[in-house]
Amino acid sequence: MHEARHLEGMAQPEAATEGSHKAGPRRFALPLFAILLVSYAINAMDRQLFPLLASDVRREYGFSLSTSGLLATVFTLGMALAGLPTGYVLARFTRKATIEIGIAIFSVGTALTAAAHGFADMLFYRTATGIGEAMQLTALLAAVSGYFPRSRGAAAGTINFTYGLGAIIGPFAAAMLLGAWKTWRAPMIVFGALGFVALVVISLAVRPWLTESTNGRGSRAVETGAFTLRNRNSVILTLMSLIGGMIIYGYLGMYPTYLREHLAYSPGVAGRVLSAYGIGALASIGGGWLGDRFSPRVVMSNTFLAAAVLGYLLFNGIPGIGAQATLSFAWGLVVSGILYVNLAGYHVKVVRSGLAGTASGVFVTSLYGSAAISGYSIGWLANHSGWMMAGVIQISLLSAIGALLAIFLQSDSTATSKEPPSNATFEK
Fold it and tell me: Which fold has domain 28-217+224-406?
């Protein structure tokens, strides 16, 4: 028991600071959270920029298809490298400070990409953006989980909802800036500067009582979950997150290139089709609600199976803009609105709240670790076997494996660690 308490105490600094932060008026909580969420929407816009501009970058620098795919998704390597360390940073610094540092890093990296001389420094800048994004996402997940302990799935869904907004706005704005300035560098610089605007607003407006809460506005919520990350559900969820990274970012990293180079879409049309993905991601709050209400086995297995079907259809050569937009919307709804949200929510839900930051770090590291090679791998497959086979192998086959793994998740109160007291696997 002593070890369990020690683990809980180490996981977050908020336990030590909780008493020093008086809970602020609840009427201010939602507007202040909205500021944090808008900053994450900017994060989403940054993520969507490079894949849309990859064809222009490839032409200028002479990069191969697989190399440009690597540049489109390598930021996820930075996210993977920073995910677990950020969990430990959160044990020593506030969530607000971690979010601010993260925004500064990914904004600088985005702007400096426009100044890259070649592959090596561009790879470094793209990786750096991921480090900043991981810090922001991990701290934000911990913050909303602490403030809304009984609705962690829906809270994670709210974060991804704002990602959906950014995914809608980003491609449109990037296409407009590209058309106006006739250079791919303009969107990178503009969105890099926008991140610093968000940083200043957060620094001046957001208060510690909001971000550092660990007890859900003083509620007496019963603690459930494992005392350690070494439990069956966390291991299975980590494997599923590795698969999630390959399928989600295989699409995000190279789908715009598929549209522009295989289906011959213009940048503006490709941007509109890609924005349909963001519209689908707006279902994230509802997707999180599903995860809070229904068995994780049912939710995750069915979602992975739906992803397998969509993965085949997306890359089977249907040229129509309406068909591709519809499929992109469905992909955003299923994979971003349900799969991603509940992977994030379940990682946090299966452990005690004191481990929320570390569990978020495990999610970020596992999902974005595999995502780092997803663009390269699907680009390599497409180059050697065609886009249709690339979709079948990387999207459909891996999704089927994810559905199989989901069957082994525990959704009852079976003990998930060796610690003796109640450590229910999922909150009821």
Answer: Growth Hormone; Chain: A; (1.20.1250)
Asked if 175 and 52 touch (Cβ cutoff 8 Å), the reply is yes
Distance CA 357, CA 363 (A): 10
- Give the span between the Cα atoms of 410 and 408, in whole angstroms: 6
Q: Is 91 exposed, middle or buried (0-12, 13-18, 19+ CB in 10 A)?
A: middle
Averaged over 17-42, what is the pLDDT?
72
Q: How far is CA 300 from CA 141, 295, 375, in A?
A: 20, 9, 24
pTM: 0.72
Residues 6+ apart with CB under 8 A from 76: 130, 245, 249, 368, 369, 371, 372, 374
Q: DSSP assignment of 257-277, as one string? A: HIIIIIS---HHHHHHHHHHH
Q: What is the largest CA-CA distance in the chain?
A: 64
Q: Which residues pair with 351 in a beta bridge?
A: 226
Distance CA 213, CA 143 (A): 7
Q: Where are the domains of the chain?
A: 28-217+224-406
CB hemisphere CA count around 329 (13 angstroms): 9
Angle at 114 between CA 46 and CA 189, to 5 degrees: 55
Would you say 327 and 314 are in contact if contact means Cβ atoms under 8 Å apart? Answer: yes
Residue with the bigger pLDDT between 191 and 9: it is 191
**CA distances, 401 to each of 62, 301, 302, 406, 414 (Å):** 36, 9, 12, 9, 24
Q: Assign residue 109 a region: left if phi > 0, alpha if psi is -120 to 50, beta otherwise?
A: alpha
**Quick check: 113 and 122 in contact, CB under 8 A?**
yes
Q: Measuring CA to CA, which residue among 327, 291, 295 is closest to residue 152?
A: 291
* Listed residue (247, 246, 231) closest to 359, CA to CA: 231
387 pLDDT higher than 70: yes
Residue 266's region, left for phi above 0, alpha for psi from -120 to 50, else beta, is beta
Smallest CA-to-CA distance from 169 within 194, 145, 152, 146 is with 194
The angle formed by the CA atoms of residues 151, 242 and 309, to the nearest 5 degrees, is 85
Can you tell me whether residue 351 is helix, strand or coil? Answer: strand
DSSP 355: G
3-class SS at 226?
Answer: strand
Contact 197, 45 (CB under 8 A): no
Residue 357: the pLDDT is 72
> Of 260, 264, 243, 279, which is closest to residue 370 (Cα–Cα)?
243
